[in-house]
């Protein structure tokens, strides 16, 4: 499968051009590490989010997805939480996030239709293999 390389400029242009009220009403944002950290950083600047936390786990070794290992999580039942990741590919990350934050809304930059979870907010639907600028390819 061909890879599509996304630039920081593409991400910044897309996120900074969102309407100012696009993601209003959230008291807390949760960044899914690691890819969600970068998107969260841009969104906190754009929308002024101050209460930011992380949901940490890993599922990839190189380019192979394996078992999900939870590294850091806490349960929060608030309905004013936004969970942020870079992409909804398999959907596993968002599935786990919804276990810890069952009432949260979700945001990803990219969404693939075969994902088991469709984000509440996403910028682009794709079928391509996406490579973000923060991914260090070897």
Concise overview:
This protein has 138 residues and is of the alpha/beta class. Helices cover 22% and strands 37% of the residues. Helix 1 (8-16) runs parallel beside helix 2 (35-47).
Morphology call: globular
Quaternary status: single chain
Distance between the termini: 17 Å
The name of the CATH topology is: Rossmann fold
Helix run count: 3
The run of helices and strands is EHEHEEEHEEE
Helix % is 10-25%
Strand percent estimate: 35-45%
If strands are numbered along the chain, what order do they take across the biggest sheet? 4-3-2-5-6-7
Q: Roughly what is the average pLDDT, rounded to an integer?
A: 88
Give the SSE layout.
Layout: E1 3-5, H1 8-16, E2 28-33, H2 35-47, E3 52-61, E4 64-72, E5 81-88, H3 92-100, E6 105-111, E7 121-125, E8 129-131
Parallel strand pairs: 1-8, 2-3, 2-5, 5-6, 6-7
Antiparallel strand pairs: 3-4
Helix pairs in contact: 1-2
């Amino acid at each position: 499968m061909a890879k599509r390389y996304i630039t920081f400029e593409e991400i910044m242009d897309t996120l900074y051009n969102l309407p100012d009220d696009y993601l209003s009403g959230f008291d807390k944002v949760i960044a899914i590490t690691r890819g969600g950290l970068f998107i969260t950083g841009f969104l906190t600047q754009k929308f002024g989010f101050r209460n930011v936390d992380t949901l940490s786990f890993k599922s990839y070794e190189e380019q192979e997805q394996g078992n999900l290992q939870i590294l850091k999580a806490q349960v929060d039942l608030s309905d004013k939480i936004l969970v942020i990741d870079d992409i909804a590919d398999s959907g596993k990350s968002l599935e786990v996030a919804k276990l810890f934050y069952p009432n949260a809304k979700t945001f990803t930059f990219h969404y693939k239709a075969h994902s088991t979870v469709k984000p509440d907010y996403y910028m682009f639907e794709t079928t391509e293999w996406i490579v973000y600028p923060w991914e260090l390819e070897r």
